[in-house]
Amino acid sequence: MSEEESDEPAYKEETHKSNEERKKEIQDPYFKEFYGDIKTDKRGTQTPHGYRETLLMLEEWMEENDIDSWQDLTRYHMTELKNYLEEDKGLYGSSADRHLDRLRLFFKSDEAIKEAGVYKEDCIDKINGFSNTNQQLYQKVTGEDVIFVTKDEYREMLEACNSTREELIIRTLWETGMRRSELAETTLQKVKIDEKKIEVDNKKNDKTRTIPFSPDLLPILREWMEYGGRDQYSKAEDSPYLIVTQHSEQVQPAYINKIVRRVADRADVSESYATDAMDRKLWKPTAHHFRNAYATYRVAESEGAGAMNLKKLAELMGHSNTEQTARYVGLLEDDLEEANEKYRPKMKDKARNLAREL
Questions:
Q1: Which of these, 258, 256, 281, lies nearest to 271 by C-alpha position?
Q2: Could you tell me which residue, 330 or 209, shows the higher pLDDT?
Q3: Which of 75, 150, 222, 313 could form a disulfide with 122 if both were Cys (CB 3.0 to 4.6 A apart)?
Q4: Angle, alpha carbons 262-264-266 (nearest 5°)
């Protein structure tokens, strides 16, 4: 495959934060006022440092996503923000919930409502919904809000890949269910080709999990690692990382998502699933939707071998509990039909006997 670099943006190598960056100030005036109230304890016993961290994180995320104001945020943004906390920040369970709880308090704050004339009820409801999902495994039953890449979409995207690197990224996401941040941080040493396994470091608990992959991933891995695909990039020689570019020894998680979106557009499988407050379309698939697909198809009973145990799936996905894993599981149409046939009440009656005779 040819390796095209002309449209690829340069990505700066990640460096340690400077003291100046650590002292970054909150910019939004409403955030500043809210944080000031927290510091002066007007809202009860709170931890100011935690709120400052949350508000700075939100400003950073909004800037990356070209969102001008918190007043433009919608319930769909809350879903994307939660994915960002998990995928890019490595925060799960209570760690992510603490950030969302602080935002919920901001959205409920009297000052924000009174001065901005905006009440973010949809955002509050969405945050509340995350908590309910954790407790009830709600999405495992309903599949609500779970968007995943289908097998047909995956095949179309493979056909649309224009380079070895694009195909490697698409196949690896499908085969391993890795987070985009984990793929960006995967080193050559962690890829065990002969064993058909990839070792993934979990930033949350400093543990390493091992993800097996099928023989389908082997050819592209060998082409990339052993037959010169990776060596075509100028930064490859000095980089320990699996994915490199002409401009960087290590790509950022956003780059992984950029490749997914680029290939999806080329394959004509992109679809808008919602709009934000400014009527801008939100598109799928993203790298996160590959992770949802990894969970969905392994739980689907229609695959023939029966559903994978959620506890085992949680280990493969790097989750600390099955409640977290259940939120990634969507429903396949075939599963609904099979489940209906399996669990519907079976009754012998005259109508059934008559149908048989006919």
A1: 281
A2: 209
A3: 75
A4: 70
pLDDT at 118: 62
Q: How confident is the model at residue 8 (pLDDT cuts 50, 70, 90)?
A: very low
Question: Residue 120 corresponds to which tokens in the numbers above?
Answer: 């973010």
Residues 6+ apart with CB under 8 A from 73: 67, 120, 123, 276, 277
Q: Which of 175, 219, 180 is nearest to 198 (CA)?
A: 175
The first and second tokens of residue 210, run together, are 């091992």
**C-alpha span between 110 and 112 (Å, rounded):** 6
Domains and CATH numbers, the chain: 22-136 (1.10.150), 145-344 (1.10.443.10)
Residue 104 near residue 124, CB atoms below 8 Å: yes
Three-state SS letters, 213-247: CCHHHHHHHHHHHCCCCHHHCCCCCCCCECCCCCC
Asked if residue 331 lies in contact with residue 297, where contact means CB atoms within 8 angstroms, the answer is no
Contact call for residues 292 and 148 (beta carbons, < 8 A): yes
Asked which of 168-177, 217-226, 305-314, 334-343 is least confident by mean pLDDT, the reply is 334-343
The three-class DSSP label of residue 171 is helix
Structure-token pair, residue 85: 């906390």
What average pLDDT does the chain have? Answer: 77
In our burial notation (b when 16+ CB lie closer than 10 A, e otherwise), range 113-144 reads eeeeebebebbbebbebbeebbeebbbbeebe
- For 152: left if phi > 0, alpha if psi spans -120 to 50, otherwise beta; the answer is alpha
Amino acid 331: pLDDT: 57
Read off the pTM.
0.61
CA dist 213 and 348 (Å) reads 47
What SS3 state is found at 344? coil
